[in-house]
């Protein structure tokens, strides 16, 4: 017997569970099949735990620097076990919250591995879901009108650098470390690499980052990447760009040693642990795609702009379709997909209006095109840039490094991109996101009167700087 549903979602991560809630609001009978825990990577192995650790690292550093604010503290010490306990408590609380939301939405959750079947006795179309259980319980069969694949991604590694959980680790294992190592070599200076470099440095770990490209954070605006590198180096993080890691030189014995070609020079690096953060790969293995006509390119599932695969009743969203591998992107793709399958009015997502954030210290955030991308697209640019050090609240806050950079089209005055690095920019970027959604110009941003004193004044000033009429610089 198969249980009938309007929608079955494979994967209960941020993309999957948000889609399930939207489907339930639209009166669909919906089920999630989740092999591990509701909340997925973001809640258990990604955004939330890493941000909890980053916050502890920040508090530790701020306490050490408290004297600057006239607060005298005797020799603060770090209790890493408590740092981990706090992180785990946050995850647990949010996990319970997601479970509660599933109950509220009357969403059935099957804790097992979901596989898409081809045409069968249940249906002439592919899309019946077989749920397999680890404990050997008999499979459940689910017969949905629509399927949503939201199975996420997992850390990628390099050939010869297989994760062993002890010396060579991914961000998954790094989050579970019971003790801090003395030193960490990070291969890959993208978002994960830089967040971990910043956090571990704040915790007192000796950190080296090896980045293959000439620029860390290669997808960020070059000025932001340059400022991030400058700030991290000032704090003692060793950053080596243009580093070609030679996996065949790996030695593991009470620590790790490995060589990299840096230009034409060979350099040897010795470390307690090596964290590989060179991207994530889509979880498309064993979910039954071979039983369907679903197309795959570059190891990700092909979809149209409403996230339909070649099998129009099977949708896919989030990291499995590639693009911006971000939790908030996955959840909005999920909402769009569900509204589309329900025949509800829905809008295509404009990826150039989506903010992305780096929660290092300093924080960085952006929306839209980088300067290089905008030039490559043929725009003639007018750029306004304003530093935090000219804003009173930044001085009060005690963090004056960084800037906001606004990139506009000379011809139309359209906002092309906004890039920020400095205090609290991961919260402030939403103003730029809203401006993009509302198709605002820099002038309109400058006419939005920013409260004084506030860090957000830097956005108003950067917008004025587009016309060369900034007040405080
Ligand atoms: P990434 O793509 O951001 O960065 C990978 C980095 O590794 C790149 O800089 C790349 O040039 C480098 N690299 C590749 N091969 C290399 C090699 N052989 N040697 C040295 N460097 C090499 O990937 P990530 O940092 O692993 O993150 C994975 C995904 O998760 C990304 O899409 C990221 O946006 C997302 N994520 C987002 C956040 C956030 O929103 N704050 C946090 C963590 C992860």
Q: How would you explain this protein's 3D organization?
A:
α1 runs parallel beside α8 and α3 (47-64) packs parallel to α6. The chain is built from 13 helices and 24 strands. It is an alpha/beta fold. α7 (222-234) links the parallel β10 and β11. The mean pLDDT is 97. The chain folds into 3 domains: 3-154 and 281-341, FAD/NAD(P)-binding domain (3-Layer(bba) Sandwich), CATH 3.50.50; 157-278, FAD/NAD(P)-binding domain (3-Layer(bba) Sandwich), CATH 3.50.50; 353-466, Enolase-like, domain 1 (2-Layer Sandwich). The strands form 6 sheets. Strands 1, 2, 3, 4, 5, 6 and 19 form a 7-stranded mixed β-sheet that branches. Strands 8-15-9-10-11 form a 5-stranded parallel β-sheet. The termini are far apart. The chain has helices spanning 14-25, 40-45, 47-64, 80-104, 171-175, 191-203, 222-234, 327-341, 371-376, 392-397, 425-437, 442-447, 457-466, and strands at residues 2-10, 30-33, 108-110, 113-116, 129-132, 140-149, 153-155, 168-169, 183-187, 206-211, 238-241, 243-252, 256-262, 265-271, 273-276, 280-282, 296-297, 300-301, 314-316, 355-358, 363-368, 381-387, 403-409, 415-422. Bound molecules: nicotinamide-adenine-dinucleotide (NAD). Residues 158, 187-193, 195, 210-213, 218, 245, 277-280, 325-326, 356-359 line the site of nicotinamide-adenine-dinucleotide (NAD). Nicotinamide-adenine-dinucleotide binds next to α6, β10 and β20.
């Amino acid at each position: 017997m198969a249980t009938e549903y309007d929608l079955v979602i494979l994967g209960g991560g941020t993309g999957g569970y948000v889609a399930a809630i939207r489907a339930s609001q639209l009166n669909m009978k919906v089920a999630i099949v989740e092999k591990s825990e509701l909340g997925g990577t973001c809640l258990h192995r990604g955004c939330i735990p890493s941000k909890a650790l980053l916050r502890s690292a920040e508090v530790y550093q701020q306490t050490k620097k408290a004297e600057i604010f006239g607060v005298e503290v005797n020799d603060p010490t770090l209790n890493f076990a408590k740092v981990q306990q706090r992180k785990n408590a946050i995850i647990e609380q949010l996990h319970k919250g997601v479970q509660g939301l599933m109950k509220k939405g009357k969403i059935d959750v099957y804790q097992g591995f979901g596989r898409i079947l081809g045409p069968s006795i249940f249906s002439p179309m592919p899309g019946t879901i077989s749920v397999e259980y680890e404990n050997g319980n008999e499979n459940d069969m689910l017969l949905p009108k629509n399927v949503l694949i939201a199975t996420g991604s997992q850390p990628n590694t390099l050939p010869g650098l297989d994760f062993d959980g002890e010396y060579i680790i991914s961000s998954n294992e790094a989050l579970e470390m019971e003790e801090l190592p003395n030193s960490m070599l990070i291969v890959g200076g993208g978002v994960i690499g830089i967040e971990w470099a910043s956090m571990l440095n704040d915790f007192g770990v000796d950190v080296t980052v090896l980045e293959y490209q000439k620029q860390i954070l290669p997808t960020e605006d070059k000025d932001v990447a340059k400022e991030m590198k400058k700030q991290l180096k000032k704090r003692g993080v060793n950053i080596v760009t243009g580093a070609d890691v030679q996996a065949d030189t790996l030695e593991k014995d009470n620590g790790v040693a490995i060589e990299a070609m840096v230009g034409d020079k060979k350099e040897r690096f010795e470390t307690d642990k090596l964290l590989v953060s060179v991207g994530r790969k889509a979880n498309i293995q064993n979910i039954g795609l071979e039983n369907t006509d679903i197309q795959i390119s570059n190891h990700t599932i092909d979809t149209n702009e409403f996230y339909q695969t070649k099998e129009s009743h099977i949708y896919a969203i989030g990291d499995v379709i590639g693009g911006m591998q971000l939790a908030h992107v996955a959840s909005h793709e999920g909402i769009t997909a569900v509204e589309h399958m329900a025949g509800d009015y829905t809008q295509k997502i404009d990826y150039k209006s989506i903010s992305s954030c780096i929660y290092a210290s300093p924080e960085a955030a952006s929306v839209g095109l980088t300067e290089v991308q905008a030039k490559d697209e043929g725009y003639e640019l007018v750029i306004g840039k304003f530093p935090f050090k000219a804003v009173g609240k930044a001085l009060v806050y005690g963090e004056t490094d960084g800037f906001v950079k606004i990139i506009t089209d000379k011809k139309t005055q359209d906002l092309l991109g906004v890039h920020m690095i400095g205090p609290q920019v991961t919260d402030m970027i939403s103003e730029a996101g809203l401006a993009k959604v509302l198709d605002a110009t820099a002038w309109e941003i400058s006419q939005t009167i920013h409260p004084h004193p506030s860090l957000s004044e830097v956005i108003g000033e950067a917008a004025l700087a587009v016309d060369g009429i900034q007040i405080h610089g």
